[in-house]
Design goal:
Rossmann fold, three-stranded antiparallel sheet, 10 helices, about 35% helix, ATP-binding
């Protein structure tokens, strides 16, 4: 199809962004292959990003394992690979912009404090009740030497942006439901950033056009869309895929000791067999 003069050429850019807190399992393989095949089909670019801001749980050997497993599956990615731990200044600058606009506030609450103050269904993550949002300026100033996180003031931010939406390939146009997520943490006490802030900024800085990830992160997209609006970042297309489950019906997870790709490989399962099992033959 011919292109007319001045018509923008949009290159599809996808990414796979695991945290090196354990070895990859079949769920990771499905997500990585989905992102890789989407880029391949559109003659685009596939990126690998290492989300290693959690210094307490991330391990260098798991990063090596990610490279090994993805190469075994036949995936190729651009280098250098972006590691979040090497770009904390980027996140600090984005947070500073939100602080200057009075859109975030320091939170001194512990998990115990939040659980005691917030009501939530059994097993659900309690919604933050806004305890520290109500602190006066003098109290905040006096307590700033204490360990604290930074939370976004959802109501204030939503009043600035107005209604927002984003597009999911499976569900169509989605109206951002911001208050349903509450005043989420944008900078953790121990990391100076959070998943929400880091991933949103990384995707913009790396020019990601299509985000492929599991449907367990669907609700997080409401917050990411808000951050894009507040920081003047582009909004990618989203592809939230179903999660793989084990024989017990539970989704595959590192914490539940889901069988890893390394373990499958060690017992003689081939990469082609894995791709056939996952529907990528």
């Amino acid at each position: 199809m011919p292109r007319f003069s001045g018509e923008p050429v949009i290159t599809v850019v996808t990414r796979f962004a695991p945290s090196p807190t354990g070895r990859l399992h079949l769920g990771h393989a499905f997500s990585a292959l989905t992102a890789f095949r989407l880029a391949e089909a559109r003659r685009g670019r596939f990126l690998l990003r290492i989300e290693d801001i959690d210094t307490a749980r991330c391990r260098a050997e798991y990063i090596d394992g990610i490279y090994e497993d993805l190469a075994w599956l036949g995936l190729a990615w651009e280098t250098p690979v972006r590691r979040q731990s090497a770009h904390r200044d980027d996140y600090a600058q984005a947070l500073a912009r939100l602080q200057a606009a009075d859109l975030v506030y320091p939170c001194f609450c512990t998990r115990t404090d939040i659980a005691a103050a917030a009501a939530a269904p059994h097993g659900a993550q309690p919604l933050y009740p806004g305890t520290c949002r109500a602190l006066d300026a003098a109290t905040r100033a006096r307590r700033m030497a204490e360990p604290h996180a930074w939370r976004i003031d959802i109501a204030r931010a939503a009043a600035i942006t107005g209604p927002l939406s984003w597009h999911d390939t499976a569900r169509g146009d989605i109206a951002a439901a911001l208050e349903a997520e509450g005043d989420v943490v944008l900078a953790r006490k121990d990391a100076g950033t959070s998943y929400h802030l880091s991933v949103t900024l990384d995707d913009a800085l790396q020019g990601v056009t299509d985000i492929v990830r599991g449907e367990d992160l669907f609700s997080a997209t409401h917050i990411h869309r808000l951050l894009q609006a507040l920081l003047g970042l582009p909004t990618p297309r989203y592809h939230h895929h179903a999660l793989l489950t084990g024989p017990d019906g539970k989704r595959l997870a590192k914490r539940d000791r889901a069988e890893t790709l390394a373990e499958l490989r060690a017992r003689g399962v081939s990469a082609d067999a894995i791709k056939h099992q996952l529907g990528f033959a």
